[in-house]
Amino acid sequence: MQTIFLQAGSPDGGMLPQLLMFGAIILVFYFFMIRPQQKKMRDQKKFREELTKGMTVITIGGLHGKLVGLEDDIVVVEVDKGVRLTFDKTAISMEATAKAQKV
């Protein structure tokens, strides 16, 4: 039984074509997966730093409410008259008006 191995390029071409292909794959991963994720994280961090009292926000769990208290890492969200919930600042996902504009 004979086995035939097919190889791209000439047999003495070395590893340069393979290294170039590997480098191209790394670039594709960086520009289509890693870089957009880093940008999204930067935007989320900036948004959380700019939170102010009175903003209508949505938590990562989908709870809508109005910010009534802000401390360093803690926010107080009023979801109904007299109903206030305390969350970690990282639990705030987006501003409610921003969601309405995206739809």
UniProtKB/TrEMBL annotation:
InterPro entries: Preprotein_translocase_YajC. It is found in: Cell membrane. It is a single-pass membrane protein. Pfam families: YajC. The keyword Membrane applies. Keywords: Cell membrane, Membrane, Protein transport, Translocation, Transmembrane, Transmembrane helix, Transport. The chain crosses the membrane at residues 15-34. Its main location: membrane. It comes from the Bacteria. NCBIfam families: yajC. PANTHER family: SEC TRANSLOCON ACCESSORY COMPLEX SUBUNIT YAJC (PTHR33909:SF1). Belongs to the YajC family. This is Sec translocon accessory complex subunit YajC. It comes from Pontibacter aydingkolensis. The gene is yajC.
